[in-house]
């Protein structure tokens, strides 16, 4: 379990540094996402071949379709997110994207037949308030900017990724991350080809940060993430997951000198705190269930 926690937290820190690494790549946002998914896919393909596992994903066609849909949603979300990095900076783009989990929670009664409780409703209100604090001054001055729209669309497509991923029951680990990333790459490649023509972006001045983003942040990051979450409690995964946006804010302040105003810092606390509160009901329910199992086990052993 300790090893799984270490792998999971390491993956979140890697993901949190994505915007920092991308800022050192002298390519447009679409080309960066293309190279990220391309290199990451090749890396995971090599890992999969070296592991000598058999491809089992397409035995259950329904799960395979959901997984591919999740990968496509991931690719589109990254296209919007990296464009938002360029337009409004890493800090604000990350905060906008991390409204995605709240969208999932609001849709969960319709899609997963889950009830909205006081934690989820309170979380939504707090996150919405946080978004007003973070973007209020920009909205009052310039209205809804293209960068903010990209950030919001990144959150929407992120929520689709989560919804499709939650419907996958029989695929996990390396096979899961490999298929999802390949699907992301294909949709990004199609988009880039239609928009700018089919070509491989030049790597002459960008080779190190591109390889770092593709191999370390994407390939190794996805492997650490998907190989660890199946070993950890779902509530813990959801709550600890907010280390990613926190680390992104921290890294962008240190390496990119991005500074949030006082009111934006309050908004950031609201967004992340509200999202954690909305996940708290799952965590408490999970802990209660574990406690009941321990009590029943202890009772039967005493008998």
Automatic annotation (TrEMBL):
Protein name (database record) = Threonine and homoserine efflux system
TM regions (residue ranges)? 7-27, 33-51, 63-82, 88-111, 118-137, 143-164, 176-194, 206-226, 233-256, 262-280
Stretches assigned to the EamA domain: 6-135, 146-277
Looking up Pfam families in the UniProt record yields:
EamA
* Entry GO CC: membrane
Swiss-Prot/TrEMBL keywords: Membrane, Transmembrane, Transmembrane helix
Q: What PANTHER family does UniProt report for this protein, alphabetically?
A: ACYL-MALONYL CONDENSING ENZYME-RELATED (PTHR22911), SOLUTE CARRIER FAMILY 35 MEMBER G2-RELATED (PTHR22911:SF137)
Record family assignment: Belongs to the EamA transporter family.
Tell me the organism. Intestinibacter bartlettii
